[in-house]
Amino acid sequence: MTTIQAHVPDPLARQLAELAEQEQVTVDQLISIALAYQVSAWRQRDTVAGRAGRGNWEKFDRAMAKVRDVPPLPGDEK
Question: Where are the domains of the chain?
Answer without folding.
Answer: 20-62
